[in-house]
Amino acid sequence: MYGRYTQDLGTFAKDEAARLRLQQEQGDDGTPRPRRPSELLEYSQGRCAPCCGCAVRCQRFFIARVGEDWVFLILLGLVMALVSWAMDFAIATCLQAQKWMYGGLDTNVLLQYLAWVTYPTVLITFSAGFTQILAPQAVGSGIPEMKTILRGVVLKEYLTLKTFVAKVIGLTCALGSGMPLGKEGPFVHIASMCAALLSRFLSFFGGIYENEARNTEMLAAACAVGVGCCFAAPIGGVLFSIEVTSTFFAVRNYWRGFFAATFSAFIFRVLAVWIKDEETITALFKTRFRLDFPFDLQELPAFAVIGIASGFGGALFVYLNRKIVQFMRRQKTINRFLMKKRLLFPALVTLLISTLTFPPGFGQFMAGQLTQKDTLVTLFDNQTWSKQEPSDEFEYIGILEAWRHPRSNVFVTLIVFILMKFWMSALATTIPVPCGAFMPVFVIGAAFGRLVGESMAAWFPDGIHTDSNKYRIVPGGYAVVGAAALSGAVTHTVSTAVIVFELTGQISHILPVMIAVILANAVAQSLQPSLYDSIIRIKKLPYLPELGWGHHEKYNVRVEDIMVRDVPYVSLNCKYRDLQHVLHSTKMKSLALVDSAESMILLGSIERAQVGALLGHQLHPQRRLQALRQKARASTEDGHRLSEASVCFQVSTEASSFAPVRGGSRKPLKPALKRVPSVPTNSPP
C-alpha cells in the first residue's frame, strides 16, 4: 500500500510540475510569454557599468551559496563556539567571585558560611525563576526532548529564541553557583535551538531551509556540535550524539556532524589561546602519563573490576534519580506545596548541598572547596598520593592541598567524596533549572577510579611487573578509566571512551578504557534504562525506548496484535451525512483521510476540531441566508421575480435542504425553523 501510494504521489507531482511549468511559459491567452529582459541591462551603460554588474553577480552568487550546507555548518559552529566560550568565561567569573567572597571573610567563620551558602542559593533561585517565567521548556537536560524531536514528534516552544535565551542564561547561573551540575546535555539542546533559528534566518535567502527533512538533518549535526564545543572533542561529540539521540542515523549526515563539530571545537580552543588562557591548542584536561609502559597486563583485572562496579553504580544513579522525582510527585501534600512555592525546592536543595560542602565544616573531608574543573585536574594527576613507603610523603601543592586532611588519609577523603557527591548529584539534577548530569557523573567515576588506583599503588608499591625494571602504578590512568566507565554506564554509550581520549590528549590507556566501558554498559543496560530514557518515561514523552534485557519476547509482538482495526475515516468523496455520522460515532481527536472507501489509501489525517470548524463555516444560518439572497438576486436579473414566501427551508443537525414551494401555495410567513418544505413525501431525501 505504501509503495502504491508513493508511486501515485510521484506521478501526480510530475504532472503538476509539468502543468505549472507550461502555465508559466504561456500567458493568460495561451500565447508564449516574451522572455524578460536581463536585469543586468540597466547596468550596461554608464561609467560604473562593470562594477554594478559585478556587484549584482556577487549578490546572486552569495544568495545562491548561502543555501549550501557548509556555509550553514560554519555559521553554526562559529556561533556555538562563541556561546560556549562566553558561558565558560561567565561561569569562571561567578566561581571566582564566590572564592573571593569566601577568602575575604577568613576572619569570621560565620560570615564565611553565610557567603558560601547565600551566593549559590541566590544564583540557583534566579535561574529557576527566570527559566520558569520566560520558558519552562528550558528546564533540564534537553537530550530527551531532542531524541523525541528527531523521531519526528513536534514539541512546541522547544526550539524557539525565547527558550534559547532562557537556556543560556539559566545554565550560566546554575553552573556558576558551583552545584554538581553539567553543561553537556543542555549544550546539545542549545546547539539544536541555534540550528533551528539559523534555518529560519537563512530561509530568507533560499527556501531549502523550509524543508522539514533538511531541518532534521541539521538538528542531527547540531547535536554533535553541542558536545564538540563543550569538551573540545569533535570525534567523541559526533559519536556521542549518534548514540544518544538516534536509533537510526543517516550516513549522509556524518560529514555534516564532523565538519561542524571540528570547526566549533577549533574556534573554541583558538579563543582560549587568543585571550592568553592557553599557549597553544591543547586538550582541556591534559595528562602526562608515561608512554613507554603505561600499564601492566596484570592490571587488566583491576580495570575490569572498575567497569563492572561502574555498571552497577550507573544503574543505581539512574534508579535514585528516578525515585527522587517520583517521590516528589506522588506525595500530594509536598507536590501541592511545591507547585505554589516553585522556588522553594531549588533553594532548599542548594542550601543543603552548600552546607555539606562548606570547607571548614564537613567539606574538608571531601575537597569541598574545589570546582568540578579543579577536581578533574587533580584526579587525573599522574603522581601517587598515598604513602608507598614510611619515608615517603607526597607534597600537596596548590589545589592538591584540598585532598589532604591531618586526621584522615586520602582513602577516607575519596570514599566520602564518592558517597556524598553520588546522592548530591542525583538530587541536584532534579532541580528545575537548565542542567545536565554528564559532568557530575564523570567526576564521580574519576574519583572511583582514583580510589582503585591509589589502592593498587598501596598494595603494590613497586608495581606488579615481574622483570627487573620497576614501573610504579599510575593512579591517574585508573581515574580516566573510571570516568569513562561510569559516564558510559549512566548514558548507555561507548563513545565516552573517545571523549576521554580527546579530553586528556592521550590514548595510552585505550585498551583498559574500552574494556571498562563495554563491561559497564553490559551491566547497566541489563539493570536500568539510560538516564535520558528514564527522563523520557518520567516526562511521558511520545518516544519508544529500546527494550532491555529480559524483554526479548516482546520483539515477537506484531503491530496487528495491538492495532485498532475499526478506524473511523473520511474519504474524498464522502457526503455531509457521512461526516456527521463519523463525528457523532467517535470521539477520536484525529480522523484518517483516505482516497476512497474501496482503495483505502491513506492520504493524511485531519483533526476533529478542524472538521467541525469547516462544517460550521460552510453550513451556518448566515451562510444559508447569503446563498438565498444570491439566488434571489440572480433570478431577478433574469427577469424572474422570486416571492419571499416561495422559498422555505429547514435547519437540521444532519442535513440541510433548499426546496422551492409551488407558486399557488401562498401561506402566512412563519419562523424559519418551524417551516417544513412542501415537497412530495415520496421524493428521495
From TrEMBL:
CC per GO annotation: chloride channel complex; plasma membrane
Q: Where are the transmembrane segments?
A: 70-92, 113-135, 187-206, 218-242, 254-275, 300-322, 343-362, 438-460, 480-503, 510-527
Q: List localization entries.
A: Membrane
Mind telling me which CDD domains this protein's record contains? ClC_1_like
Q: Where is the composition biased (Basic residues)?
A: 664-673
Membrane topology category: Multi-pass membrane protein
Give the span(s) annotated as Disordered: 657-685
Per its record, how is this protein called by name? CLCN2 protein
- What organism does the record attribute this protein to? Anseranas semipalmata
